[in-house]
Amino acid sequence: MKVSTFITGALLGLATQFGTVHADLSPITIKGYKMFDAKTGQYFMVKGVDYYPRPNAGELDVNNYDFFSDDHEDIWSQDLPYFKQLGANAVRLYAVNPTISHDKFMCALRAQGMYALIDMGASCEGCYISTDTAPKCYSGSMKTRGEMIIGAFAKYDNVLAFSAGNEINNDHNIENFENAPCQKRFIRDLRKYINQCGLRHIPVGVVMSDRNRMENAQYYNCRTDPKDEFENVEWYGINVYLYCDATQTTIGGGFQKLLNDFQSINPAAPVLVTEYGCLNEGFPKVGKYEAQRTWTQTGWLYSQQFRDVFNGGFVFEYSTERANSKSKSDYPFTSFGEQNYGLGYYSPATCDHSKTKCTYNKMPNFDNLADKYNHTNASDETTMTKFEPASNRTQPTTCPAQIKALSKFDWGNTTNTKSLACPTKTDQFVCPGQSSSGKWTTSTKGSSPGSDAGTGSKTTGSKTSGSGVRGANATTPTPTPTSTPKSTATLATLSWTLTMVVLTAAAHSLL
């Protein structure tokens, strides 16, 4: 049997295994600060969950591992029915390996009408925007990594968006936005690569922790060079842990301030709450499980007044990570713990996704969220053709004065790093048993973007370490994944630096 025949059969099986096939699923597009179905024009409200199915023990009990490949179908396939029960339409993936196939996972999501938000950072060397001062915080290997990820995932029409970084502002050593220009430059380079390659317009954004809220939101939504159309994000994400008072029944002060702050900034791009779900001992005990979140704030987030600013969000997280939770709330996670964030957990205590299978168990707060998601209705939202952004939300924000313009830095290490050849088959992938949503590429593909000094850029070097995701057309080992935001463990893996040398050389030989 040919390998291609086997894979096609396997994917076809997946398309029918996980419920109704959404043959009409289309890419999500952005108009102004709202998201819409690119084909039907209907408003799209993100009802997401942060997904990192970490086992309780074993070799895969690590941060930033790619659980979403074809090889791990036995891991993620059991969770898909729970996504459907939850009423979720998107998952956020903290770590992917672009050198291996994700066809089965992405097709299985698509069959359920679901999308994926793909993070790009990882904890391996050269895989993240570091805490160094700009421009050292952005390396040529990070640029190449980002292009690889784009190449690997651009073929899937259910990629919701790319995240160029996760909480690079959350290190105690970062006090004055020292590495923010590196993050912004990376966003710019990714956007330009997608544009020059004529790929489907998958929006590039960034996720920040809730620190220096106003300054970060303004900075990533602005252009330090008004003529550079790629500098600003196409969507903006913020991780917020508000609504910790379980007795609050009306919109809490923290959530109201969040709304007020973003209303005052008037971003021209969609805003997503990319992590939320505060833990507090005051939440009710349900059965044997203490402090079960009620998800009252979910109702607020999807109310009309919040929808005018926010386009939905992702709850943190699908399953409790024992490595993070065990010091205060160990298996079976019935007691309150500061890291017991799961909507459920895996059993038994020794499960490792290998010798001992992990079985998912819902906690009561799973059903609380499912009730919110399954009763959320945005049918009163206008369609894309009729939607007109408010006049005060059509332009990039004003840049904070304390952060230097990108043109003030010497980006030589990245401008001297030649871009990878453009992907050539990004509009040809159709999930077996599902209908194509159409052709979404924008121009000629298969060439390579020219070198780019960037507006006002000079030429020197830079260095990086890692936070991330993985990209496309390569044959390397999986780089170390970066942890989900509340994780603390580290993963010892093969060197990403050596990988990048091989990949870059191979890519350049094609140019």
Automatic annotation (TrEMBL):
Pfam families: Glyco_hydro_72
Keywords from the named record: Disulfide bond, Glycoprotein, Signal
GO biological process, one term: cell wall (1->3)-beta-D-glucan biosynthetic process
InterPro entries: GH, Glucanosyltransferase
Gene Ontology terms, MF aspect: 1,3-beta-glucanosyltransferase activity
Low complexity compositional bias, start-end: 435-467, 474-487
An example Gene Ontology CC term for this record: plasma membrane
Keyword Signal attributed: yes
Segment forming the signal sequence: 1-23
Stretch list, region Disordered: 431-487
UniProt entry tagged with the keyword Signal: yes
Family named by the database record: Belongs to the glycosyl hydrolase 72 family.
PANTHER family xref list: 1,3-BETA-GLUCANOSYLTRANSFERASE GAS1
Protein name in UniProt: Glycoside hydrolase
